[in-house]
Amino acid sequence: MMGNHTATGEANSTLCSPDRNRWKGTSMSKWMQEWSTAAVGPHDLKLAERPLPEVGEHDVLVRTLAVSLNYRDKLVLETGMGLDLAFPFVPASDMSGVVEAVGKSVTRFQPGDRVISTFSPGWIDGLRPGNGRTPAYATLGGAFPGVMSEYVAFPEDWFVAAPKSLDAAEASTLPCAGLTAWFALVERGHLRAGDRVLVQGTGGVALFGLQIAKATGAEVIITSSSAEKLERALSLGADHGINRSSEDWVERLYQLTADHGADHILEIAGGAGLGQSLRAVAPDGRISVIGVLEGFEVSGPVGPLLLKSPVVQGISVGHRRALEDLVGAVERLRLKPVIDKRYKFAEFPEALAHLDHGPFGKVVIEF
């Protein structure tokens, strides 16, 4: 089923039944192009022609307009990340597109609607699915097929209406990077005007964090090893920039905040970087652990953890309701995602390689 790029959220799916083509939609070609790989590894990607996915009773068929890449997409392709992938595997999780056809029982969308994907299908609101032994990690471009395809057919609950204020490429950046920053700072972080927010780096999540925090009235401090990227972040509204390659960023943070520290930290580095964030966080502050650039094992001193009593929260994107809230905020605040470069569909391998160069914002593929 995944090889044909279809999925369903129903226990007793009708996707394979002979009467699946009862669409409230339009007629179109029965073929499409799709990127996939037959095995884990960086050199097995192939662009091939596939049958157009069929649409079940509760599904929508979406013509892909843009796909936003995350570094996770590259890791999944190269290492599998320990996931039980189905081959041929279609990569990537974040897309925007237009509804071409809908199943006969679909009520949330109709042909012509612009939509974006949700990163964690089935997580609509509230607590994350799963349990202590087996936390849920069923995402697009992982346990479920990805979106590097001209068309996708998924259950209607797996989509959210795209913001009218963004073009397709901009909208495609919201499902993972945008929602991760929103979930950390607003949904779970309860960000308030006047809070001091420290953002590590200038990637997609970081720049969304900068924009969301500034729109909320927070004071934003950016760290980077690039003077040029710090200048660009300041032009986006950051209040302060710290070059972590030339100075102790924690000491500089103390100076900038009169020893207060950071009320919120978007911890992108992981590894031993958590220890630096524990030094930098204000008493009763919050550290959102998002990235693993310095390793999958985090470490830090227990002293500041006990004495400051910060909240240390892991953020693995967020649920659909929060994504809908983000879409509303994007339209209301006129937020514009930062796109480092736009590639064409045929340039998918080049776009993946770009992720290794530390993009300023997002890398997007347009169809």
Automatic annotation (TrEMBL):
<dbReference type="InterPro" id="IPR013149">
    <property type="entry name" value="ADH-like_C"/>
</dbReference>
<dbReference type="InterPro" id="IPR052711">
    <property type="entry name" value="Zinc_ADH-like"/>
</dbReference>
<dbReference type="InterPro" id="IPR020843">
    <property type="entry name" value="ER"/>
</dbReference>
<dbReference type="GO" id="GO:0016491">
    <property type="term" value="F:oxidoreductase activity"/>
</dbReference>
<dbReference type="InterPro" id="IPR013154">
    <property type="entry name" value="ADH-like_N"/>
</dbReference>
<dbReference type="Pfam" id="PF08240">
    <property type="entry name" value="ADH_N"/>
</dbReference>
<dbReference type="InterPro" id="IPR036291">
    <property type="entry name" value="NAD(P)-bd_dom_sf"/>
</dbReference>
<dbReference type="InterPro" id="IPR011032">
    <property type="entry name" value="GroES-like_sf"/>
</dbReference>
<feature type="compositionally biased region" description="Polar residues">
    <location>
        <begin position="1"/>
        <end position="16"/>
    </location>
</feature>
<protein>
    <submittedName>
        <fullName>Alcohol dehydrogenase zinc-binding domain protein</fullName>
    </submittedName>
</protein>
<feature type="region of interest" description="Disordered">
    <location>
        <begin position="1"/>
        <end position="21"/>
    </location>
</feature>
<dbReference type="Pfam" id="PF00107">
    <property type="entry name" value="ADH_zinc_N"/>
</dbReference>
<feature type="domain" description="Enoyl reductase (ER)">
    <location>
        <begin position="41"/>
        <end position="365"/>
    </location>
</feature>
